[in-house]
Give the backbone structure.
Amino acid sequence: MRFVWAVVAFVIAAAMIGAGIAQRTVFHGPSETSANVQTEGSTAFTLIDGAVLNSVPGAQTLRVQGDGAVFASYGRTADVKAWLADVAYTSATLDDAGTVQTSEVEPTVTPASGTATAGRSPVDSDLWLDEFEQTGSLSTTLQLPRDMSVLVASDGTAPAPANISLTWPIDDSTPWAGPLIVGGGIVLLIGLVLYLLGIRHVRRQRRPRRKGLPLPVTEPISTVGADAESKGVVSQSPVRRGGSRVRGALGGRRALVAVPALGLSVALLAGCSADAWPQLAATESPSPTPTVIVPEGQFPPAVTEAQAQRIVSKVSSTVAQADASLDANVVAERLAGPALAERQTNYKLRAAIADRPALPAIPAEPVQIVLPQTTGTWPRTLMTVVESADAATPTTTIMMMTQQTPWEEYKASYVGNLEASTNLPELAAPYVGATQVPPDSSFLVMAPEKVAAAYADVINNGQNSASFAKFDTANDLLLAAIQDNKTKRTDELNQTGAGTAEISFSASAGTATPIALATLDTGAIVAVNVYESDTAKPTNKDAVIKLDNNPAVKALTGVDQSATGFTTTYSDQVFFYVPSQGSDDQIRLLGYRSSLLEAKVSP
C-alpha cells in the first residue's frame, strides 16, 4: 500500500511542478503591449487623446522619433484643445472598435494675432502640467487619467514627429508558480519517504525469523552457512549484530535518495522571482482626512498645485532677471497692473540713482498656499502665498495672478507682503479651488469694486469717514504707516520751506480692477489698488519748491525745482478679507505693498 501512495505522490508532485514551470515558461504571456500613432506629418502639433492613453490599464510609456527637436507635454484635454483652437492639428483618438485613428482638426477660433500662422512654440506654456524636450527621440513614462491628453510637436513651426508609439505594461506575474513548485517538491519528498518505507517493509518480511526455543534438531540454514564458510565462500546476507548493520544500510540509502529531492526543490525555488508568489502583504489603512464636498456642476480648478508651483517659479525667475537688468520689457512678461507699474518706476529710479534699493524679490519657494479659480474659460485667476527661503530677509508674499487667454502666461497683478501676525481665513483645498467673486457682488458686506474707494475715504477722513466702522482699523498696519509718512513729509517741508510752502494729502481708488476669490465661510479675499498723493506748493509767489533732499522726485520729473510745486503719488496694493453679507465681522487687512508710483510738476 505504501508503494501505491508513493506513486500517487509522485504523480501529484510531477503535475504540480510541471504546472508551476509551465506558468513561468510556455504559458508565460508578454510583459507589455503597444500601439502606434502614425501621422502624415502635415501639421505642427499632434494631440493624443486621454482615451487612447487609457485604452489599456496601467502606466503609459510614450516614445517619439523625429529628425530634430522633439517636444511633448501633457495637460487637461480641455486646456490643450483651447491652446490648439486657433491652429490646425492632428488628433489621435479611438474609433468604435477601439483602434487608434488620426484625423486633422481645423481651427475653431480666429487667431488673435499672427503668431498662430507664423508658428507658436509650445515650450513653457503655463497650461502644461509637465513638458519634455529632446533631440531626435524622446521617451517618458506617464500615468495620466482619462481627462488629460498629450501634445507632441517639434518647434511649433515644423511638422510634428510622425513616428509615435505608446506602450503599456501587462501583468504577467504568476503568483501560483512558486507555491506549485515548492508544494510539488514537498509532495515529491513525501513520495520518496513512502517509497523507502515500502522497501523497508518488504525487506523485513523477507528476513529469516527466529523460532521459539528449543531449536529443532536439524538447522539447515546454519549447516549450509558452515559448509559454505569451510569452503571459503563468503555469505552475501548481512550478518545481524543486534540489527545495527541492516538499519545502517537502509538509513544511508534513504539519505542518499532524499538529498536529490531536496536539491531539486531548492533549485526550483531559487529560480522563482517575486512575481511568482502571491502578494500577501497587509495593506496599510489610510488615515482619515477631512471630507471636502465639491458643489455639483462646479468647474475644476484652473491649475493643479504642482502646476501653480511651476508658475510661481517662472514668475520669480523672470522678475529676478528683469530686476538685475532693469528691463521693463522682460518684467512685463510676468507682471501686470499695479505690480508692473511699481516695478517700472523702480527701474527708472535705480537707473538714475545709484543707491536706490530694488523692490523685494518674488520668492519661488516654498509655496505655502495655492488657491486657484474654478473655471473652464478665460481669464483665470490664481492666488498664492510664498514664503521667502532667505533667512536674512524673511517675508511672506501674497500674489493674485491672472491668465487672460490660453496663449498667454499667468501674470501677477497684485503683489503684497503678509504680516507675521496675519491670520488668513479658511480656504478651499487646491484640488477644489474657489469661485471668483464678481466686482459688483452683493453677497459680501461690501462689493469688491467699492472697497478701494471706501478705504481711501478712511485714509482721508479717519474716524469721520462713513466707512470707518466697516474696517478693522485697530489692527491696520497700513493706516499707521500712512500716518507716519504724512508726518515725515510735513516735517521735511517745514524744515526746508521755512513757512513758505504747504503740503496736502489725498487718497483715491486706483485704476486697477479688483480681484476677489471666495473663502470657505462665503467671504472673500479681495485685492485692490489705492493711490496716495501728496502735493507740495509754495505759499509765496516768489518762492519755489526745491528737490535738494528728494532725488527720487527729481529723477521722475527731470527738474530740481518748481514755482508751482510737485505732486507725488504712491501706489498701494492692498489685500483684504471681506466677510459675507450679514456677518458682524469687519473688513480686515491681510497684507499690502506700498511704493512710489510717479511724480510730476503741479500745474
Remarks:
- The two ends are 123 Å apart (CA to CA).
